[in-house]
Amino acid sequence: MAARRRILPKLHGRTAAAVPRWAVWTAYATTLTTLPSCIWRIAAMNLHAPLLAHTTEPVRGHGTVLFTGWWYVLVLSVVSEALAYLTLGLVSEWGEVVPRWVPRLGGRRVPVLAAVVPAGLGAAVLTLLFPYALIMSGLGRMLDGTPGSGVITHGWQTAVFAIAYVPLAAWGPLLGIVTVHCCRRRRSPRMVTA
After folding, report:
1. How many Å apart are CA 151 and CA 140, to the nearest integer?
2. CB of 16 closer than 8 Å to CB of 91
3. Rounded to an integer, what distance in angstroms lies between the CA atom of residue 48 and that of residue 185?
4. How many helices (H) and strands (E) does the chain have?
5. Of 28, 67, 158, 188, which one is least surrounded by beta carbons within 10 A?
6. 163 vs 122: CA distance, rounded Å
């Protein structure tokens, strides 16, 4: 128990004042929603694990592929995990006060709306986007509704794909919960006087 108390603050910094444990765990859960898909993507695309049917021809119904290559998959995975990690800023001190090492801004208080508006917009987009994308993929369609799929899986590969990508549907709602809590907590009269 004592070791956990030392490890968690190192992962996200110190928890902000008046943040309940459930909000911290919800923020951590948000970061875990992107991890399975990142691992699947890197394993399937970069390491060529047998997680999908690799083809040499473009997939039917798939338009021009603008982004390809191992670097794109790696960058996409790092960026999505980093964006999910920003949820921890809604429950941590570094999300309320700019860290001192940041030039010119270090030590200044982060305005509530500067944190809550982007997080709220992100939560809304993610809540709509990922369930829609998963449903379209499950129906064997592209995002625009045309027949075809960007990823071809068979049998057990389909199950592994679902296990890796279904958690993304929770990213938006979990971010929304933490965002609403952050907004309420930081706008409460107790926080203004503190």
Report:
1. 9
2. yes
3. 46
4. 7, 0
5. 67
6. 23
- Reported residue count of the chain is 194
- SS3 breakdown of the chain: % helix, strand, coil, rounded to 5? 65, 5, 35
Residue 140 near residue 148 (C-beta atoms within 8 A): yes
CB 97 within 8 A of CB 110: yes
CA angle centred on 86, ends 160 and 91, rounded to 5°: 115
> What's at 125, amino acid-wise?
V
What is d(CA 126, CA 132) in angstroms, rounded to the nearest whole number?
10
Q: Residue 87 is encoded by which pair of tokens?
A: 């949820």
The per-residue pLDDT for range 157-167, each reduced to its tens digit, is: 888 988 999 99
**Separation of alpha carbons 105 and 67, rounded Å:** 35
Residue of 133, 168, 173 whose CA lies nearest to 40: 168
pLDDT, the chain, mean:
83
Give how far Cα 178 sits from Cα of 50, 54, 167, Å. Answer: 37, 39, 17
Tokens 């049917």, located at residue: 53
